[in-house]
Amino acid sequence: MNQRTRSLVIISVSVAAVILLAAVLMYWTGGSSQGVYEPADLFASTDFTGTEFSLSENSGKVTIIHFTQLENPLCIECEEHMRSQIEELETLVSFDNSQIEVVTVNIRKNVYSEDGWAMAEQWYGANITWHWVEEFEPYPISGNYIQFWQLDGAFSNPSIVLIDQDLMVAGVYHVYCIGKGVIDGVQDADSLTEDVESILSGTWVSDKGDAAGWEGATVGGMFLLGIVTSFSPCSIALLMAVISFVGAASMHNGEQKSKEPLFGIGLRIGLAFTVGTGAVFLVFGLFIAYMGDFVQMSTTFFLIAGAILITLGANMLFPITTWVKQGLSSLGANQSSEACGVPDTRSKTLGRIQALSHRSPDLAGVLLGVLFSVGWAPCALSLTLPVMVLLVTQDISIWTGGLMMLAFGLGHGAAIIPFCAATGEIKGALGKRYVLVAKLVQKAFAVVVVCLGILFMARFVGFNLW
Question: Of 120, 160, 224, 371, which has the highest C-beta tally within 10 A?
Fold first, then answer.
């Protein structure tokens, strides 16, 4: 097998591996499973009165699990529906139906806030006589029911989950969804009583309330988004730099320094680069999810995010940054680092990594991936900002946020692998086509980003498409 054939095989295998990994990630996150019964998580807990209880004790009854988030700062957007649903549950409990058990899980993020049950009694005049659990991180109950109280990745506050007499999830009501508005609406005491009777009699229809699983392929989608964003201009510049780096790493004084085939060295560096990129985005995702604990989703937040998206999209369509730099330069406000006597840190860092590549190409590839992710990927921001906005404002765990950004980082770095493994002739041919496609894709990206920004801002006036 000659060098050209080997390179083609490596490229084919790399592309197939990327597609396979994306498919696995999509299958892993799952799709919609509306109307499908599934076993409920049999949790045990202690309510606000100190009473211990467990879901398994409710076998033979219908359990209504009420997920909400009543704490300071209060969700102004959904307060009316939170209050109304609590009042209806109070009425339901007053019916004294022995076939019904009600459990409220109050998802808490602010440990310094007053307890939700106390706020309900003081603010709404409610008499909480059912099991009410104040749940904090790591969310042992709500964490196992997140697929039911989330809708398209957004927190449905409040949500009602119906558990039948066989301890199976029978249905879900998304009363109000943050950022979307009213979905199923407040479930009054009479309608919930009818639902319980239908479930017990076996006449319950699955399309009345959804037993919905994970919506969409979040991790797989982030992985594919990472691949798509590799067509951005800064990624093209990176691609050329990495290809040059691979060539320099495999040669010494104009001769191949190792008996290992060039495509093998390139493949190793490409994989190492992808690992470095993924590691940085993993840390970034953890930070974004952590910040979500302090950000309250509201229409104002979408207004700000929309304005940022429009600005970033416009900058991709027009060289706004260049114009600003030229304007500052004409005013004498912009001097190069060389003119100021500031050493070119980036060049020195690259030089050190280049020297390291002669001893350990793998470690050098990882460091190059880290360097790119930290300082050379501003273009990816405009394309991932919508996802970052959702990550910040969703009730997801810190590790889930890190996992999604890790998938993006792996996808963003995966496009480098076939180029690194290819021969010089194939690199040139692929590089030309890559640049040609990127010019077309960049404009399309910019239009999509601007449109997303407009849609985000439209939510401020109540126009919701998702």
Answer: 160
